[in-house]
């Protein structure tokens, strides 16, 4: 017994040194984040409309957008970064109706990644408006490829989500279990992987490691926050991803002439896909589509449920928008409109309504060949005008309660 106390006594200086190092690093992280945050406050409204890479990967630029006032963060994937006339970031850049749109996302984003980006902000999103844009392509595969997941995964966002005091333990355990599906990505972050495993499969050993694990996680967080601050500042200094090509800014103080904008979009936007002949009877592709969306291996539906639960626990004022499927293309291949309604639009609406989250599925544009670019999940210029109008209505509380509230 005395030998045990002697060993503990000899190890005490190392524990104290680790704690002091962690405290010093956290203080340094706070000072760096505070200093850079103060500098970014001056340019927040200038950079809000830009699709910045570090905003997608970090927290500082996201938090600045929520705190700025008059900014609506919109979470999604490649539709937010693909150049197209009337894209929301540029369209609302000068706050023509009193707000800007701040895009957060990149190609390969999905529900679980969007949840991490939002939940990591904690109290910053409480009572704030935000929009999540769903792409039908997310639900057409059993799992996002590891490479795409790794490209959008942020250890900082994951750590902050699992440390969140706003999320319930049950939800954090569900998130951790889902992240284990991407073990190869997590292997590069051993402390995070240990934390996730201890949440999913707690043992006596992991309980004993708890204090040490928390200290290491705090050190990792501080280092990642310093990195996020530096990279954010660097990207802002170099000008971000400035808008190019055929973009359009609605002049400040001008009420949007929506019908005129739709006519202009038809004249100047990407030409619609050629009209295709319809197949009246369902084809084998119809059966395959049903199987893809309804597969028990399709984790995207579980991820959407977690995202909605997270939005509720964070008390965010969210709107979910589902990009329509290219219905004309599906019709030509014998995939019925009733199938698309059942496996995509109706299922999303039921999930959202069950959790009281406002939703707009845009099913009324399912067979509008002008809404999407080549029947893919990217809105055309016309599609963006419709989305811009929806975002404007959401910001100004003009949405029809018939489809935005729980029955």
What would your notes on this structure say?
By secondary structure, the chain is α/β, with parallel strands linked by helices. It has one domain (2-403). The chain has helices spanning 2-41, 44-47, 53-57, 60-68, 88-91, 111-119, 146-152, 155-163, 169-179, 183-186, 190-200, 204-208, 210-237, 258-268, 284-294, 300-313, 327-332, 337-354, 381-395; strands at 71-76, 100-105, 129-134, 317-322, 359-360. The chain has a five-stranded parallel β-sheet, with helices on both faces. Helix 1 (2-41) crosses helix 4 and helix 6 runs parallel beside helix 16. The longest helix has 40 residues, at 2-41. The termini are far apart.
The coarse overall form would be globular
Beta content comes to 5-15%
- Biggest sheet architecture: 5 strands, parallel
Overall structural class, as computed from helix and strand content, comes to: alpha/beta
H/E element order: HHHHEHEHEHHHHHHHHHHEHHEH
List how many beta strands DSSP finds: 5
Count of individual helical segments: 19
How many structural domains are formed by the residues?
1
Arrangement of strands in the largest sheet: 2-1-3-4-5
Low-confidence regions: 3-12
Distance between the amino and carboxyl termini: 66 Å
Rg for CA atoms: 23 Å
Mean pLDDT: 84
Q: Can you give the helix content as a percent range?
A: 40-55%
